[in-house]
Amino acid sequence: MKHWICEKVKDFLIDDATLRAKALQKKIKERYKVHIHYKRVYMGRIFALNQLYGDRDRSFDNLYRLKAQIESSSPGSIVNIDHYTINGKIRLRRMFFVLKPCLDGFLNGYRPYLAVESTFFIGRFKGQLATASLREAIGCPRGLAIHTDPGQAVMTGVGEVFPEAEKRECMFHLVNNFKKQHRGKVFDDHLWAAAYSCNPYLFEKHWNAMEKEKLAATNYLRQFHTRLWTRSQFSPFCKVDYVTNNLAECLNNWLKHYKSLNLDDLMDKIRQLLMIKRKLAKKWDGRVLPHIIKKLNEQSRELSLEVDECSEEVEVMAMGGSGFRFVVNLEERTCSRRKWQVCRCLACTAVLVSELDCFPVNVRICPLHMRPAGTRRTGCSPLPPMAPTSSSAAPGSLLCSPRMLGSAVHP
């Protein structure tokens, strides 16, 4: 029976290796019109995964072979394997690796911003794929900003590893936690608006509206959400204005179909996916990112702004009697709204200012989001292919799986 189930579920597992025994049991019943006991499906699933991806227990020992191949094919990459010994057996505790082209691209070509989160493995051995072990690889660049979810363990760990960095909190998770305690139209209108406000005056306007409605709500934010979550408090050095941790969520979504693979296969799959991303990044042409050009084209239609120029400064005022006014200085690259300082993009203001002939072309193009000069030189350099791990020499001692806590029962 185990062999029959193994053959039937292989096709399902090839398409999605994260399918659990309960889902496979349902698929077998739908396709073959037979009901099989859960435990039999579970054992057949384990047998099929072993045939498709190799023995899970032996896969931990292959991590040393993977380490040797990565360091050989991409010199300068960092691969650390931490282990401990119990009853004479060497067991894996954690693993961290970063590829050399990715490291060079971050240090030399990109803005100092990190999105940190943990994604849980799915399978027999539980664990997390964390991205907080970066201090050894990147140090602490000037102006580094780190975005995390509002979890005490993650935020505390980031604070200990990167005490000098700017700590940001994901606004999406903050709002979800906030709505469990406080609800109302005033919060729907002003909470997200306060997060997106680059100017402290506008932030205070939304904050006071919420505080006037319910003082306990703002006291809750002061007490339990002490990290930065509004653009008005972001440092002007980083030039990244994200208020959510969507970059980390994108990584989780990127890997969701591979999280039940053996650990060595998962690490190799991540390396292969990065190779594809680097290939796509090399196709970029020009200095201005395509989505910024699209955004500027959309916002340049039917603008209700009045522009007055004076030497290197430009005064922009909203038409229609609202009285909203802000000053743009192209030489110093500043804006009284702090939009330019926080995210290096003036949006609709840049469209109007770029039409003024009194400024050189290189100054007029500065407000836009540009691709950093180092992206093609370092960040987009291709990752070299890697030989199979079986060609590497075996380590001197056998690395075993982590010790499983609790009783060894099937999920």
Automatic annotation (TrEMBL):
**Source organism, top-level taxon:** Eukaryota
Q: Which residues form a coiled coil?
A: 263-313
Give the keywords, sorted.
Coiled coil
* Protein name as annotated: MULE transposase domain-containing protein
From which source organism is this entry? Paspalum notatum var. saurae
